[in-house]
Amino acid sequence: MDQYRPSRRGVLAGAGVGLAGLIAGCAEPRTESSIEGDSSSGIDRENRADGSTYTDVYETIIDSVTQIRVFGIEDPYTEEEGRGQGSGFVVDGEYIVTNEHVVAGAEEVDLQYINGDWSGTRLLGSDRQSDLAVLEADHVPDGATPLGLAEERPVVGQEVLAIGNPYGLEGSMSSGIVSGVDRTVPAPHGEFTFPNAVQTDAAVNPGNSGGPLVDLDGNVVGVVNAGGGDNIGFAISAALSRRVVPALIEEGEYDHPFLGIALATVDRLIAEENDLEQATGVIVTETLQEPALGALRGAERTVERGGEPVPVGGDVILSIDGEPIPDRHALSTVLALETSPGDTVAVELRRDGEVSTVDLTLGVRPTDD
């Protein structure tokens, strides 16, 4: 869909852990922070400092970033209804992207834009397995132009800005770099992982979730979803968002591809116990569902090395459709970004010392509801 292509903004053309406790948004009830601050909409723009490239980026996109207010969610400790807050941003017309965990279980979701306007919303679609959701707003200000999801993959060292509403402070921005790419991040409840996540040292805190992590051209590199201090934050990549968001708008849901296996990255101990020449690839520890059942072989047994069980005898996946699979992170990324349910993929594997190829038709990852 063309509206998700990055918009190169003219004003910028010349401008040079388990995460269960680390969610950067707030879909849980919370008391109002004692920290207060107004939006920047009332700043005297005729009498101010010159700013920087960061200022240009901020002023170009801030009208498109919203604060999200969530009502009617259940406090997991008291089981009483409460409220929460997070961030979001405009991607097309009246569509707002945020995190699934920000709006999950809400009875009502309101938006407030930086100019002070409020809007009601309705939930168009959500996907817990990518932590993405799309809202349809009743009202979008004229200045809230769609933000583009970056087509280029981010690189380590690239400058980025996180814009959102930490602790409910409207229109906040923090700067940093991309400090890691292709991360596989555990979901808060541990049922699955988020592939291809972007790691950043830009400060993200409760209330940032759902807000954009942007490059210096104003393109969205990722959707902030978690931060745990110590200069580590994570965002759902633009590459994954480009696949999920259009489906949420059109269908209300997104199906993820599924091999039907449990696996482990081949490390030195696994390589030694399985007589492998190199510590590379992923070993199938168990076949769980189709399409793996009957086609792939799981580990026959485990041995203990260093106090840890080491799988022995399972197939070792080396590549998928010619894409090398050195570890489980690569497998997650290839499946998430290059395949869809129903696709038939060529899985190159090593079994009993011999390399062969098996064609598998991918299934749909089961939901964890």
Automatic annotation (TrEMBL):
Gene3D superfamilies: 2.30.42.10, Trypsin-like serine proteases. Residues 258-362 form the PDZ domain. Residues 32-42 have a biased composition (Low complexity). Residues 30-50 are annotated as: Disordered. Keywords: Hydrolase, Protease. It holds the Pfam family PDZ_2. It comes from the Archaea. GO terms for molecular function: serine-type endopeptidase activity. InterPro entries: Chloro_Bact_Ser_Proteases, PDZ, PDZ_sf, Peptidase_S1_PA, Peptidase_S1_PA_chymotrypsin, Peptidase_S1C, TAT_signal. GO terms for biological process: proteolysis. The keyword rRNA-binding does not apply. Coiled coil: none annotated. Belongs to the peptidase S1C family. This is Peptidase S1 and S6 chymotrypsin/Hap. It comes from Natronococcus amylolyticus DSM 10524. The lineage of its organism: Archaea, Methanobacteriati, Methanobacteriota, Stenosarchaea group, Halobacteria.
